[in-house]
Design goal:
7 strands, Nucleoside Triphosphate Pyrophosphohydrolase
Length: 136
């Protein structure tokens, strides 16, 4: 029986500089050549919330405030089941520094972010964030 890989991440957003709407942060991972939301595996003894904040900080350089929980994403990664817990998260500021794991960060309007995301499951998370934003 394969043990489930547990991970956490965020759909990171900020008010758009124009003052209208929001921008979404996407990270590019050269290992996979994909665009995604910041996420990563839980470390031993770490809560999903702690992991989500740490991964945002490590991958984007930004601190964040966790908002509403988004749908859990389940999929197979290298033949093992993976469960990723996601939150909506407001970026509180910081500065991006490229690394081996993440070489680019972009802030895009939701429609452009949706088009840039590699995985359909990441588009579903963006849609969940947007539907929550529009109801509050």
């Amino acid at each position: 029986m394969n043990r489930v890989v547990r991970a956490a991440g965020c759909v990171l957003w900020r008010p758009a500089p124009s003052g209208r709407g929001i921008d979404i942060a996407l990270v590019h991972r050269p290992k996979y050549d994909d665009w995604s939301h910041p996420k990563g595996k839980l470390k031993r003894g770490e809560t999903p919330e702690e992991c989500a904040r740490r991964e945002v900080r490590e991958e984007t350089g930004h601190s964040c405030a966790l908002g509403p929980r988004l749908p859990m994403v389940r999929y197979l990664a290298n033949g093992r089941p993976k469960e990723v817990t996601y939150w909506s998260a407001l970026a509180l500021g910081g500065a991006f520094a490229p690394s081996k794991e993440v070489d680019r960060l972009v802030w895009l309007a939701p429609e452009r972010a949706r088009a840039r995301l590699t995985q359909p499951r990441d588009r579903e998370l963006l849609d969940a964030l947007l539907s929550h934003q529009s109801t509050h």
